[in-house]
């Protein structure tokens, strides 16, 4: 069942989203060669808690970190550790914050120092695919129009869409209905209504679409070990279109 949010609930979700955006802002300022993913995790948790929220991911299903830190061929769910970032890496950071019982969720992939032209193109295309999907988020439209817009843009650029992981509804639970694939035909699924809150998150591989999970039972990597990217915003459907909640 898809739960629409009241005006009061949306205000709480806006604050959760604002906190998530503040975390990304703080992390972006310190991402450089030599910093560890554990240091990024500690900074993220500090920012989240300083604004009266708690990390949505910490303890979720047993996840040990406050954020997910996925480097290079790691797609999602990377566990913060003593790993030091190095020049030329790319890192996907997924941040969730729970503010007064409501979640915000956003992921972004960042360059570490100077990166290759190929990786920069991967980041650019994946980020743009997010906004291509969001352009289809309007009341009365079918949910799968978002999915189709993302897939067609990514595949036209020569990259692959991951099928095993999808976007989702969000609210008092981190993952709510509906599931939102980043692929599929248009004009399918439920019609969007004002008050729906959705986490749209293209996950894109430079090589084939296939992924696998490492022995830690969390970290998802590309099977061909080529790099991947992940961009995500939480949005609310409005009377006229959509509003991004996870931005300043």
Automatic annotation (TrEMBL):
CC terms in the record's Gene Ontology section: cytosol
Source domain of life: Bacteria
Cofactor needs: Co(2+); Zn(2+); Mn(2+); Fe(2+)
Entry annotated with the keyword Protease: yes
Sequence positions that bind a divalent metal cation 2: 105, 168, 201, 232
EC annotation from Swiss-Prot or TrEMBL: 3.4.11.18
Residue ranges occupied by any Peptidase M24 domain in the UniProt entry: 11-239
InterPro entries per UniProt: Creatinase/aminopeptidase-like (IPR036005), Pept_M24 (IPR000994), Pept_M24_MAP (IPR001714), Pept_M24A_MAP1 (IPR002467)
Catalytic activity: Release of N-terminal amino acids, preferentially methionine, from peptides and arylamides
Co-factor remark: Binds 2 divalent metal cations per subunit. Has a high-affinity and a low affinity metal-binding site. The true nature of the physiological cofactor is under debate. The enzyme is active with cobalt, zinc, manganese or divalent iron ions. Most likely, methionine aminopeptidases function as mononuclear Fe(2+)-metalloproteases under physiological conditions, and the catalytically relevant metal-binding site has been assigned to the histidine-containing high-affinity site.
GO BP field: proteolysis
PROSITE patterns, A to Z: MAP_1
Assembly and interaction partners: Monomer.
Main function: Removes the N-terminal methionine from nascent proteins. The N-terminal methionine is often cleaved when the second residue in the primary sequence is small and uncharged (Met-Ala-, Cys, Gly, Pro, Ser, Thr, or Val). Requires deformylation of the N(alpha)-formylated initiator methionine before it can be hydrolyzed.
HAMAP family tied to this protein: MetAP_1
Family: Belongs to the peptidase M24A family. Methionine aminopeptidase type 1 subfamily.
Protein name, as recorded: Methionine aminopeptidase
Annotated gene: map
């Amino acid at each position: 069942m898809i739960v629409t949010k009241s005006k009061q609930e949306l205000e709480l979700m806006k604050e959760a989203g604002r906190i998530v955006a503040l975390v990304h802002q703080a992390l972006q300022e310190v991402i450089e060669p030599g910093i560890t993913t554990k240091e990024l995790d500690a900074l993220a948790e500090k920012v989240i808690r300083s604004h009266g929220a708690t990390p949505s991911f910490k303890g979720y299903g047993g996840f040990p970190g406050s954020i997910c830190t996925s480097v290079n061929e790691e797609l999602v769910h990377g566990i913060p550790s003593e790993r030091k970032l190095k020049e030329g890496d790319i890192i996907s950071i997924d941040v969730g914050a729970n503010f007064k019982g409501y979640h915000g969720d956003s992921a972004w992939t960042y360059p570490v120092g100077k990166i290759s032209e190929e990786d920069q193109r991967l980041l650019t295309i994946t980020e743009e695919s997010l906004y291509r999907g969001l352009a289809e988020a309007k009341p009365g439209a079918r949910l799968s129009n978002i999915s189709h817009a993302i897939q067609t843009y990514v595949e036209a650029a020569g990259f692959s869409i991951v099928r095993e992981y999808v976007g989702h509804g969000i609210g008092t639970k981190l993952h709510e209905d509906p599931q939102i694939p980043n692929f599929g035909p248009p004009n399918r699924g439920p019609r969007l209504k004002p008050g729906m809150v959705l986490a749209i998150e293209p996950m894109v591989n430079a090589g084939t679409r296939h992924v696998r999970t490492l022995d830690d039972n969390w970290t998802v990597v590309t099977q061909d070990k080529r790099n991947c990217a992940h961009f995500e915003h939480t949005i609310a459907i409005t009377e006229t279109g959509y509003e991004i909640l996870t931005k300043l």
